[in-house]
Amino acid sequence: MEPDTITILVIAALMLFHLAIGVPLFVVLGLGSMAMILGLDVYSITVFGEVPFSAIDSWALLAMPLFILAGEIISRGQTANNLVRLGEALVGWILGGLGMATILGCFFFAGTSGSSSADTITIGRIMVPAMKKRGYQTSYAASLAASGGILGVIVPPSLIFIIYGVATSTSIGDLFLGGVFPGLILALAMCIANYFVCKHTDWGVPESGKFSLQEVGASLWHAKFGLGAPVIILGGIYSGIFTPTEAAGIAVAYVSIVEIFIHRSFGFSELIKAFQRAAIVTGMLAPIIAFSVLFGEVLAILRVPSDLVTFFLDLSVGYVGSVALIILVLLIVGSILEPIAAILVVMPILLPIGVELGFEPVHFGVFVVCTLAVGFITPPVGINLFAASAVSGEPFINIAVKATPAFFALISGIIVIAAFPSIVLWFR
Fold first, then answer.
1. Which domain of life does the protein's organism represent (predicted)?
2. Is the pLDDT reported for residue 139 higher than 90?
């Protein structure tokens, strides 16, 4: 083994060790990049300041804090309740309908939040108590909120799609549009899994068992502003009226007007809190993005991605086997890294492999995001599991166990998304 290869492996092992003991990711990425620059003499040390600054000096990346702010505003208002009511009207009359309504509520709310944890907490606060009254086990009810929250990063606008687009130079607008039907497929898969769970328990028996077209119409009317947000965002982007970054600013203005002046559910003090929370989240993500771009450039100079592509393709496991390996790798990475961080770390390696396998970049991006998002409900990281635990008071591990049916439903949906590119690329 060559000395440079040994050095890279030692540095990689040290980085994994520091992640395991809880060192912040941006510190690990920064120190790992510096160690490779100094230890392998591949770059001038000046890039340590130049590349991270250039990485966050991006017009496209400005969409991130704006969509975070829009999600914070909408999660504190009335819109979420209206969207949940619509979900109940559509499926509440079916066996397990309240659980399905939780998933649909997450789907609809995702169109304005762009965040999985916001989806889980906002919808969970509304639906977990309601499901408990209907006989659902608390941990299972919380697992539905956690699983449905995954849709927050798949249904547009999605923060992860913005990060993926910036990191891989892929059209963010195309990624947004590509996430629409995969989001529907994953929501449907989880609803079906919930139906069979309720069929073999005494949970989820509907109160009336009758579909009401009148209630659906009334719910649609009340939810019109929440449903209007993704329509305006996607319609404006794809028609060329505004860019994804401009769409983020319009989204903030739109949800602010709806909650403050129409629903009147939002005061000035709440607006200040939303700005503060959005600033905190943005401040946490920005250094991770900056140093992950540096780390990716160092890996590219060292030819690590191309060498791994060659190794991967030489395994001779065929297309299906290669896709299965990618899914396995992403599930493992997603279980130990937050998906945004995972994308920034692994995409310099995985994207060339995907291209070699014949994936179109937008299709591959949606497939990768959907697979990594499963990490939101898998230990040890499982951000949505912690969020659902905070909402329900149930232990983290109990919720993780009860999320098993949703986990397998999501994997089934991801296989369908990988196999049929037209599900993602329907707009072309």
1. Bacteria
2. yes
Domain count of the fold of the chain: 1
The string of pLDDT tens digits covering residues 43-97 is: 777 777 787 777 777 776 777 788 778 877 877 778 888 888 898 889 888 888 9
- pLDDT, one tens digit per residue, over 330-376 is 888 877 676 777 787 778 778 888 888 889 999 999 999 999 999 88
Is 428 part of any domain? no
108's CB contacts (< 8 A; 6+ apart) are 83, 86, 87, 223, 226, 227
* DSSP E strand boundaries for 18-153: none
Structure tokens at 236: 């404006």
Helix (H, G, I), strand (E, B) or coil at 359: coil
The answer to whether residue 313 is domain-embedded is yes
Residue 3 counted as domain residue: no
CA distance 22 to 291: 17
Sole residue written with tokens 């739109």: 254
Question: pLDDT above 90 covers what percent of the chain?
Answer: 24
Residue pLDDT, tens place only, 263-313: 887 777 888 888 888 888 778 777 877 787 787 778 777 777 667 667 766
| Residue closest to 33 by CA, chosen among 301, 240, 235, 256 | 301
Distances (CA, A) of 43 to 34, 51, 53, 108, 300: 10, 11, 16, 47, 11
Cα 69 from Cα 77, distance rounded (Å): 13
**Cis amide bond preceding 380, omega within 30:** yes
Listed in sequence order, the residues at least 6 apart from 366 whose beta carbon sits closer than 8 Å to its beta carbon are 154, 161, 175, 178, 179, 182, 417, 424
Rounded CA-CA distance 102/126 in Å is 9
pTM check: above 0.85: no
Looking at the domain assignment, is residue 243 inside a domain? yes
**Residue ranges making up the domain that contains 132:** 18-423
